[in-house]
Amino acid sequence: MNAISIFRGYGKVNHLGDQTPDRRSSQRPLLTTIAIAAVVLLTLVIGSILAAAVIRDYREEEETESPPLSAELLESIKSVCSVTQFPDSCFTAISSLNTSIKPDPESIFKISLRAAIAELSNLSSSINTLNGRNSAPALQDCVTQLDDALSRLNESMSAMEARPGEKTLTEAKINDIQTWVSAAMTDQDTCFDGLEETGSRVLNQVNHGIRQRSKEYISNSLAIVANMPLLLEKFGLKMH
C-alpha cells in the first residue's frame, strides 16, 4: 500500500508540473500582442504630433508670406532699371525680393543695393572657402579686395538710412554713394584680374553664375545712383 501511495503521489506531482509550462506558454502570445499594440499606438501618437507641427509651420509660412508686388511697383522697377546696363538682371534681382516698398527711385535703389550686397557676400564666402584650401598670395589679395568692396556697399546702405532730422538724399550724399559703389566694383574687378594674370586655377573653381550676378548687381546699383537726379525728375520728385 505504501508503495502504491508513493507512486500515486509522484503521479500527482508530475501532473501539476506538466500543467505549469502550458499556462506560461498560453500567456506569451497575449503579452506579445499587447506590446505590439503599444508600439503601434505610440507610433500613431508621434505621427499625429509631427503632422500637426508640419501643418502649423506651413500655415504660419503662408500667413507671413509677403503679398505680390503691385503693377505700379513693377512698372516703377522697370523704369528705374532701364538706365542700367543689365536691365533684365536688375528687374529680376529687385522684384524677386518681393519686398513691399514705395514705387520711387530712392526705395528701389535701396533694394538694388541690398541685392548687390547679398550676391557679393555669396561670392566672398566662396572665395574664402577656396582660400582655406589654397593660400596663394593672389587669392589672399582677392579676399581682401572683396572685403573692402563689401564694406563700401554696406557704407552706402548706411548712408541711405536717414537719421532723425536728416535728409535721406542730398547731392553730396549721392556723390559719396556713387564713389563708394564705383570703388566696390573696381575692387571686385581687381580681385579677378589678379587671379587671371597669375593664371590661378582657383579662378575656374569660382561659380561663374555668382560671379556674373555680383558684377551685374553692383553695376546696376552704380547706374541707378549715377542717374538718380534724372530718375527723380522722371518720377516728378525732387532732391530732399
UniProtKB/TrEMBL annotation:
Keywords in alphabetical order: Disulfide bond, Glycoprotein, Membrane, Signal, Transmembrane, Transmembrane helix
Gene3D superfamilies: Invertase/pectin methylesterase inhibitor family protein
Enzyme Commission number, as recorded: 3.1.1.11
Example of a GO MF term: pectinesterase activity
The keyword Transmembrane is assigned to this record: yes
Name of a matching Pfam family: PMEI
EC category: hydrolase
Regions crossing the membrane: 30-55
Record flagged with keyword Membrane: yes
Domain Pectinesterase inhibitor: 72-224
Family named by the database record: Belongs to the PMEI family. In the N-terminal section; belongs to the PMEI family.
Full protein name: pectinesterase
Organism: Rubroshorea leprosula
